Amino acid sequence: MKKLTFLLVALAANPAFASEGPFVSLRNAHFVILVAFLIFVGVLIKFKVPSMLLGMLDKRAEGIKADLDEAKALRDEAQKILASYERKAREVQGQADEIVAAAKRDAQLAAEQAKADLKEAIARRLKGAEDRIASAEAAALKDVKDRAVQVAVAAAAEVLANQMSASDKSGMIDAAITEVETRLN
Fold it and tell me: Where do the TM regions start and end?
């Protein structure tokens, strides 16, 4: 590589390209530039600048490759994490759907139970109302009967008072007292 570079430089510095006078002269600007360039290239080669440049380029390429590998590893890890989160999200969604379905079932059962309880309460209240009505009817009948008995007794007492004599009244009172005594004993 070094020889090829030197050969190209030497061919490029052909005396035919010189502008004036002999080519190998310090007065010829092209010759001076050629010599300076060759010295510069020689110094670069002496201090191993091309190998240092190649080493730096290789090092940079390795750094870029390492960065790319790290980026690929991070991308793979991110994809794994994303897949994990998506799986967890599906599981959570499934659990949420199950919870909602269970809540709907529970609400339906609670509504049915409330309807049954309401029907039972209405039936109890109707039964209680019917019992109160029957009791009120019985009380009214008793009151009517009692009043009828009172009226009948009063009417009978008046009829008897008008038709009975004092001795008959006294005999009836004695008979009633005797009957009460026998019943009490």
Answer: 29-49
